[in-house]
Amino acid sequence: MVRTLLCTKYAHWRYEREKRIFVGLEKPEPGTGHYFAPFSDELRLVQVIVGAQADITRKEVATALGSISGSVEAFKTRLAFQTFWVVRNREKSRWE
To answer: Which residues pair with 77 in a beta bridge?
Structure first.
């Protein structure tokens, strides 16, 4: 039942095409206490979606991605004009 709850998503958010997976986490990162699963052939980052209210720059995202920045799509979002959706901002000049 817990797995079902964790994998259930509200139908109106279907457009996000989100994937959820479960991975084993060994030990926390030193200094932060956060747990991470390393990227691999089975777990690959393909897209970074920057929220409408986020103030991170395109350059900061590329720096954070490091050597994989060329193979990861990154884009900024905005609030939709006539719905409650968050949509891709197609005006690239609005995100430096």
So the answer is: 88
- CA 22 to each of CA 3, 25, 56, 69, 86: distance values in angstroms, whole numbers, following the listed order: 9, 9, 28, 25, 26
Q: Residue 47 above 90 pLDDT?
A: yes
How many independent structural domains does the chain possess? 1
pLDDT of 15-45, one tens digit each?
A: 777 777 888 888 999 999 999 888 888 888 9
What backbone torsions phi and psi does residue 92 show, to the nearest 5 degrees? -60, -25
CA distance 32 to 2: 27
Q: Which domain holds residue 79?
A: 2-94
Q: Which residues pair with 73 in a beta bridge?
A: 47
